[in-house]
Design brief:
Rossmann fold; 4 domains; four-stranded parallel sheet; 13 strands
């Protein structure tokens, strides 16, 4: 196991105030990547040094601390440009990894599907290309471990020409997969079944909530970025109405631009949803900052017009009085903020009621009875409405459907009056 010395550099008062939480998150990232935290160094520096980011004296202090701690690498909680990274490695004499490189390494370990692996590899190689010296190896790439491995633990390419060729191929393959995904989204848009996307800061509890709502027993983990590949499952309400739920990659502040670019086709699924569930860890000391980080990414993805339900998760970790107050607010009319515990299930019925109102508020229940010979009617009904039940007799086909009044106009001659229940 690699030993890592963590370095946090603050250049503003707000960054200084958040330093403890920020370096704590960095420690979590390091552990998620498979490293052991050997120590921490902090510097407040309003004017960042263009050569090393930190001051010359601090570079010497970092080198000394790394040697004393037996650290194999130094991880900075900021992004370094290529020359800064190389200058630091020349001075400190151990591998230097920045925040982006660390997150990319974790993504490489977590990717499971072919598309996820291609996206991560593209992000890694796009990051790595400007950091190569001459035709190939820099100190960072000479060793092994964090920063040198791609998806599936394969060693990242270090030859400039081969990297360029590989990036071209990856973009082509990802573009083809993106077109296929876009086609699938268009098919879903033609369907009356709405889609809800779960988004949130990494480790906010999205996967636990996903499992609870879909009755899945899928593996969940406290590890950062345990979900990379989007999942789509059906969720039903007690009255038979249903929607599709997607779980997406967890967000994080300063999400590497390489990842946003590579994963854009996947992240765009959020913008195509009928509703977004923004899951937040309300018990986290950094809850407000995490909420802001996710909202910034959602704004970048252009999902401003999609209804958002804010889900304050992990209320079971709050004091009883705070938990009770949040739960009471669940009952407020029209509220788009719901407090829950995905672990205990508390508040989840309130969430489902709110989603039911957001997704199907304008829908009505209809009983439609169609002669068997009118095949075009029976074939088109599922494209215009949510079919809850269907039964056939010798002469007719009956449907129990949910639809907006405008969507049922073509079927008015076949509406059955009275109680719309079987």
């Amino acid at each position: 196991m690699e030993r890592a010395l963590l370095v946090n550099v603050a250049s503003t008062k707000s960054e200084k105030d958040e330093a403890e939480a920020s370096v704590g998150e960095l420690a979590g990232l390091a552990v998620a990547a498979g490293a052991e935290v050997a120590g921490r160094v902090f510097q407040f520096r309003p004017r960042l040094n263009p050569r090393w980011l930190v001051g010359e004296g601090k570079v010497k202090e970092i080198g000394q601390a790394a040697r004393e701690a037996g650290a194999d690498m130094v991880i900075f909680d900021r992004n370094l440009n290529a020359s800064q990274q190389q200058n630091l490695e020349d001075e400190i004499k151990v591998k230097v990894v920045d925040r982006t490189q660390l997150i990319l390494d974790i993504f490489a370990q977590r990717a499971r599907t072919n598309e996820g692996k291609l996206q991560v590899e593209l992000a890694q190689l796009s990051y790595q290309l400007p950091r190569l010296r001459g035709k190939g190896l820099s100190l960072t790439q000479q060793g092994a471990g964090i920063g040198t491995r791609g998806p599936g633990e394969k060693k990242l390419e270090v030859d400039r020409r081969r990297i360029t060729d590989r990036i071209t191929k990856l973009k082509r393959d990802i573009d083809a997969l993106g077109k296929r995904r876009s086609s699938q989204r268009q098919s879903r848009r033609k369907s009356p079944v709405p889609t809800v996307s779960l988004v949130g800061y990494t480790s906010a509890g999205k996967s636990t909530l996903f499992n609870l709502l879909t009755d899945e027993r899928r593996y969940t983990s406290a590890n950062l970025f345990s979900t990379l590949d989007p999942l789509l499952r059906r969720v039903s309400f007690p009255d038979g109405a249903f929607f599709f739920l997607t779980d997406t990659v967890g967000f994080i502040k300063k999400l590497p631009v390489e990842l946003v670019t590579s994963f854009r086709a996947t992240l765009e699924e959020v913008g195509e949803a009928d509703c977004v569930c923004h899951v937040a860890d309300v018990a986290s000391p950094s809850a407000e900052h995490q909420l802001g980080a996710v909202e910034a990414i959602l704004a970048d993805l252009g999902v401003a017009d999609v209804p958002v339900v804010k889900v304050l998760n992990k209320i079971d970790l709050l004091p009883d009085d705070e938990r009770a107050l949040l739960l009471r607010r669940n009952a407020e009319p029209e509220t788009r903020t719901i407090a829950i515990s995905a672990r205990t299930g508390e508040g989840v019925p309130d969430l489902l009621r709110r989603l039911r109102e957001v997704l199907f508020g304008g829908y009505r229940l209809y009983h439609i009875r169609v002669p068997r010979e009118t095949r075009e009617i029976t074939d088109s009904l599922p494209q215009r409405s949510l079919v809850l039940k269907r039964r056939e007799s010798a002469s007719h086909v009956e449907f129990m459907v949910m639809a907006e009044p405008a969507g049922i106009v073509n079927f008015l001659p076949y509406l059955e009056q009275g109680d719309a229940s079987w």
